[in-house]
Amino acid sequence: MAMAAIRREGRRFAPLISPRPITAVRSSPLYPTLEDEGPLGVRHISTQVVRNRMKSVKNIQKITKAMKMVAASKLRAIQTKTENSRGLWQPFTALLGDLPSADVNKNVVVTISSDKGLCGGINSTSVKISKGLHKLNSGPEKETKYVILGEKAKAQLVRDSKKDIELIITELQKNPLNYTQVSVLADEILKNVEYDALRIVFNKFQSVVSFVPTVSTVLSPEIVEKEAESGGKLGDLDSYEVEGGETKGEILQNLAEFQFSCTMFNAVLENACSEQGARMSAMDSSSRNAGDMLDRLTLTYNRTRQASITTELIEIISGASALEG
Amino acid sequence: MLRRASMLLARRPILAARARPFSTDLPAAPSADATFTEAWTKVIPNMDPPKTSLSFMQPRPPTPSSIPSKLTVNFVLPYASELATKEVDMVIVPATTGQMGVLPGHVATIAELKPGVLSVHKGSEVTKYFVSSGFVFIHANSFADIIAVEAVPLDRLDVNLVQKGLAEFTSKLSSATTDLEKAEAQIGIDVHSALNSALTG
Q1: Quick check: B29 contacting A, CB < 8 Å?
Q2: What's the whole-model pTM score?
Q3: What is the ipTM of this complex?
């Protein structure tokens, strides 16, 4: 059986049996095998390199599997919060409608992204949509500014739109997300940025594998008045009586601010959910790739190991037969 | 490539099996979305336009010709939807101008809320909540949307803590120096006295 095995291996590894083909072996691009000298000058092809690679790939697989579990548990925690907050922005859209095509002079695009990476392509999609909105709303007398939430969007937008960035906010998820934090954030944005229309760009969480880029528009009270007067979608806003406050404008101002903080809260939660879901699927495909790589490496390792055993055997046997005959 | 195909295949049954109402697409896209989509495809032809909030909402029924018998109430908080399209007889909301009763057929109104008691009347049962503040929209089709920042059922309030808070903020007001501190203390007093009257009255 050993002879049959040797014959099989010998056929495959015929070039290795020739004396000292070091250069041929060393120039192999994928797995440069090291040669080390054993006793009596017997050559062993070292499996050290392949073994090192296998160890590192196995570690990477373990890490990505763990990251997937962590992302799954974080997703579960934040998904219930997100679904509960979905009712929050609906009354505003029912009252004021949604006018993404409103033509205004001062646009502010609020891009929501994650701080950490390894979450697939969701941050790039958000940035692409933000840049698209910038292009869409460009024209004479019109300007678009960016407010950036999250490190990843900051890294991408700082490169080419640095002069258009108004505000950058990072480390949003250091503490668990809650409405108080987001409303303080919304207050900061409203105080520091002049706006006619705020467009919030985020990834809406539809399921663990599906994240839809969405844009929510919040109009300033002056624009709301203008649109209401010109009829169309907001035409029946005038039919609503406004209770309380000194003027209608004051109430509408409060309404716009409240609408912004509510839509921001929902957007931030949805984006966080999408981030965890995207990270889950990214880490899952990483683990799968690592597993495939490990399989291929194991095969190569076994082949190399068997080849060196065969070489040894052949040398010993030919040495022995030389002594006899 | 295979993964995208499997995602597409997976998306169809997910859409069908989903029972959540908020993610259904509207059957006919409203005109505002159409202008946006057109403008987008003209400027950025190689990317799909982003979805807008309108496509994630269920449309509201139009104003009926006769006054309906029940009021449909949506009471939402940032953390939960307390009541979602619940049919009730009447709600009393604490608007800034005082307690406002809302019946079916109420004129369309936008009102801001001050801290106070919200009561929901359905038949003979009355549920009371203390709301911190928010807005109420009453639509012409007898839909009422109440959005509050914080709301708790009255039985969860502790009388002693309310009294303590009231005393604390009163002392803070007397010792306040800047306008900001005075305003914060005043807000505290307003909320706590409203809590007090809610528990006693």
Answers
A1: no
A2: 0.81
A3: 0.79
- Residue B163 and residue B147 share a domain: no
* CB-based contact A132 B47, cutoff 8 Å: yes
Same domain, B169 and B187: yes
Cα separations in angstroms, A273 against A210, A243, A276: 11, 38, 5
The pLDDT assigned to A8 comes to 54
Rounded average pLDDT over A161-187:
90
Residue B172: give the domain boundaries.
159-200
Q: pLDDT for B37-68, tens place per residue?
A: 888 888 888 888 888 877 788 878 887 788 88
Residue type at B57?
M
Contact A307, A16 (CB under 8 A): yes
Q: A320 burial class (0-12, 13-18, 19+ CB within 10 angstroms)?
A: exposed
The angle subtended at Cα B162 by Cα B156 and Cα B167, nearest 5°, is 170
Sign of torsion over alpha carbons B95, B99, B105, B107 = negative
Q: Residue B36: inside a domain, yes or no?
A: no
Work out the pLDDT band at A141, boundaries 50, 70, 90.
Answer: confident
Residue A279 dihedral angles phi and psi, to the nearest 5°: -65, -40
Is residue B46 a part of any domain in this protein?
Answer: no
Q: Tell me how far the alpha carbon of residue A195 is from its chain's centroid.
A: 30
Q: Residue B138: which of A87, A220, A239 has the closest Cα? A: A239
- pLDDT digits 0-9 by tens, A110-128: 999 999 999 889 999 999 9
Over residues B132-156, the pLDDT tens digits come to 889 998 888 888 899 999 898 888 8
Q: How close B201 comes to chain A (CA, Å)?
A: 23
**What pLDDT digit, counting tens, does each position of A38-82 carry?**
555 555 667 898 999 999 999 999 999 999 999 999 999 999 999
CB A219 within 8 A of CB A100: no
Query: Which chain A residue has its CA at the smallest distance from B108's CA?
Result: A240
Q: Are residues B142 and B190 in the same domain?
A: no
Of B52, B60, B80, the CB nearest to A98: B52
Comparing CB atoms, the residue among B43, B95, B140 nearest residue A136 is B43
Contact B135 A94 (CB under 8 A): no
Partners of residue A95 in chain B, C-beta under 8 Å: 110, 137, 139, 145
Domains of chain A, earliest start first: 86-233+252-278 (3.40.1380.10)
Residues B76 and B129 reside in one and the same domain: yes
Q: Who's near A142: CB < 8 A, 6+ residues apart? A: A104, A105, A106, A107
Q: What one-letter code names the amino acid at B147?
A: I
